[in-house]
Amino acid sequence: MWKTSTLLFTCFLCLISLIGKAQTAKNSPFSDGGSKIVKLYPNPATSRINFELQNNNDQGYDLIVFNFLGKRIDQIKNLNAKTTVELDKYYSGVYIFQLRDRQGNLIESGKFNVVK
């Protein structure tokens, strides 16, 4: 039962990611197919991870982080050009981030690993 639930949840997250990418390509002003707005490093991370906006055109972005089970872990409002997130409260595992504009539209999503 646990394996089936995990598999279904993983498929659900993949579907959300694909829908988000489709919306990003349709709604994003950077929809040339390969442009990324946010760069994150290091990945995998141990104690902190840096999020760097590539095209900060004075638009306010929010960064939302979810654990692999879909629970919201962190939210950073009005993301700066370079933001460092301390990972003290994060466990080892895979996390999903979403970059959203002020209206709540999904701009970009991705994942990163925490290794402790």
Give the second-level CATH assignment, the architecture of the domain at 34-114: Sandwich
The residue fraction in helices comes out at 10-25%
Per DSSP, what share of the residues sits in E-state strands of 2 or more residues?
Answer: 35-45%
> Average pLDDT, to the nearest integer?
81
Would you tell me which CATH topology of the domain at 34-114 applies? Immunoglobulin-like
Order of helices and strands: HEEEEEEE
**Overall morphology:** globular
Q: Overview of this structure, please?
A:
With 116 residues, the chain is of the alpha+beta class. The protein has a domain at 34-114: Macroglobulin (MG2) domain (Immunoglobulin-like, Sandwich). It is 22% helix and 39% strand. The strands form two sheets. The protein has a four-stranded antiparallel β-sheet with strand order 4-3-6-7. A hairpin with a 4-residue loop joins strand 3 (61-67) and strand 4. The longest helix is centred in the first third of the chain and has 26 residues, at 2-27. It comes from Chitinophaga agri. This is T9SS type A sorting domain-containing protein. Pfam families: Por_Secre_tail. Keywords: Signal.
